[in-house]
Amino acid sequence: MTSPDLSALVLLSGGQDSTTCLGWALDRFDRVETVGFDYGQRHRVELEVRERIRGRIEGLKPAWSGRLGSDHLIELSVLGQISDTALTRDAAIALADSGLPTTFVPGRNLIFLGFAAALAYRRGIRHIVAGMCETDYSGYPDCRDDTIKAMQVALSLGLDRRVTIHTPLMWIDKAATFALALAIAGPQFLDLVVEETHTCYVGDRTQRHPWGFGCGVCPACRLRAEGWARFRKEDGC
């Protein structure tokens, strides 16, 4: 078995951020496993693209050959049952009275990290890689760096084993995330991110834009479109 210090578990939703993080992890760890969560999300098409992403990514760099390990899909429908949000119901995407967007699923990332850590413990893995970002996000408090650091401490104490949570995108925006994908594995990886990943909150894969598939109007699509425009401008294209 590969050393726990040379293995990682990546939270792979099927979106731009988590796919970029998967490439980041393949560059750094000898064995990389992935985990996804089915919580009754409105945009569950993201779960369908995960297999295609995994099927293509390992062949993008010779060094990645043989590094991609098992995939795990954890059923968490109970989270959707207790979450009255625009990500788990056919509801309007807007700002709620709390000041948070209606797409905020309370406790989602805390629950994801808890389950990921339990799975990693069983699999002999001490490194968890996740795509949370505080720079270019939708205002979710469970994406903040302080939240992730607190979870790392809590999980390490609760499991009596050092758990390290890596968030490579924490301090970069969407434009820099596109640039990171290009830097990690060149145009082929950037093409995979554009063609295969899914970020649109309403799950629309019927409309193809320069930055990928999506409705084009939800907050996730707007962030991605604005990031792509900045990336192309900064890249000189």
Automatic annotation (TrEMBL):
Zn(2+) binds at residues 200, 215, 218, 221. Binds 1 zinc ion per subunit. Gene3D superfamilies: HUPs. ATP binds at residues 12-22. Pathway: Purine metabolism; 7-cyano-7-deazaguanine biosynthesis. Its EC number is 6.3.4.20. GO terms for molecular function: ATP binding; ligase activity, forming carbon-nitrogen bonds; zinc ion binding. Keywords: ATP-binding, Ligase, Metal-binding, Nucleotide-binding, Queuosine biosynthesis, Zinc. GO terms for biological process: tRNA queuosine(34) biosynthetic process. It is an enzyme of class 6 (ligase). Its cofactor is Zn(2+). It catalyses: 7-carboxy-7-carbaguanine + NH4(+) + 2 ATP = 7-cyano-7-carbaguanine + 2 AMP + 2 diphosphate + 2 H(+). Pfam families: QueC. Belongs to the QueC family. This is 7-cyano-7-deazaguanine synthase. It comes from Blastochloris tepida.
